[in-house]
Design a protein that fits this description.
- By secondary structure, the protein is of the alpha/beta class.
- It has helices at 20-33, 44-52, 54-61, 71-77, 97-100, 120-133, 149-162, 175-182, 198-203, 211-215, 219-226, 228-253, and strands at residues 6-8, 13-15, 37-42, 65-68, 112-117, 138-142, 166-170, 191-194.
- The protein has a 6-stranded parallel beta sheet with strand order 4-3-8-7-5-6, with helices on both faces.
- Helix 6 (120-133) links the parallel strand 5 and strand 6.
């Protein structure tokens, strides 16, 4: 199953615009097929990494689904003719992990889910929540604090025994993508989703922004208010770094 990629103007990246309903249909298909798939998302942080790290770019280019996560990416995509075709509200195509994880109960045939990442309390809370979201599914978790080579080996062995159909990997960007890229050959077949801090958010450990704030594209302000030290660089500095990368890329293309 090949999904169409669409170019996001100015940012010079490609994405797979999907609504929640569209994504659950894709996940149902992937679960039925039983192969190895990768689902990631694009925000300004991932775009910056893509333009500065060739290995990160390669992983995104070889992922199966690249969701639009982040208002600036969505707004730039919305300027294209692909977005203006009567498919519904543009904001429906902005899918952060906490937008689609609550809909996993609509994924047909989903019986085994693994949750890797966050601390012990948050991981257990997310596992409990997912057992409510997908009744009857076997959901197991493994915390990701103190991630190192030994923990990574243990995680791979655990996944090989458990054989989940869906894996939510929340180690933060770019660690989670690096793990998936370097372990691609040894991972058991499953749909692997890079979900960042969503494990803590689903567990209720990290407070989610009200959805109306997210739909206005102001989620960054909410996170800045709650976690200024964690997100200040991304809000105030990283956009300028990205702008510089994009300008240099454009200048290299000009004759």
């Amino acid at each position: 199953m090949t999904l169409e990629r669409q170019l996001v103007p100015f940012l010079d990246v490609e994405a797979t615009p999907l609504t929640v309903t569209g994504l659950t249909a894709v996940l149902s298909r992937y679960v039925a097929e039983g192969g190895t798939r990768f689902v990631v998302g694009h925000n300004l942080h991932s775009v910056t990494l893509l333009h500065s790290d060739p290995a990160f770019r390669s992983f995104y280019e070889n992922s199966d689904v690249v969701l639009i996560d982040g208002a600036p990416v969505l707004w730039l995509w919305a300027r294209t003719g692909d977005a203006d075709n009567g498919r519904g509200a543009v904001m429906d195509y902005r899918l952060g992990s906490t937008d689609w994880i609550p809909a996993l109960g609509n994924v047909a045939g989903l019986e085994r889910i693994a949750v890797i990442g966050a601390g012990v309390v948050a991981n257990a809370g997310a596992v409990a929540k997912l057992r409510e979201i997908v009744p009857g599914a076997r959901v197991e978790g493994m915390p990701g604090e103190g991630w190192n080579v030994d923990v990574e080996e243990t995680a791979i062995e655990w996944l090989s025994r458990f054989r989940p159909q869906l894996v939510l990997l929340g180690l933060g960007m770019p660690l989670q993508e690096q793990v998936l890229a370097r372990r691609r050959a040894s991972l058991p077949p499953a749909v692997y989703c890079a979900v960042g801090g969503a494990i803590e958010q689903i567990a209720g450990v990290q407070k989610l922004a009200p959805r109306w704030i997210g739909r206005l594209g102001l989620e960054w302000a909410w996170r800045l208010m709650l976690h200024p030290q964690r997100v200040a660089y991304r809000v105030f500095c990283e956009p300028w770094v990205l702008l510089g990368l994009l300008l240099r890329r454009r200048l290299r293309r000009e004759p």
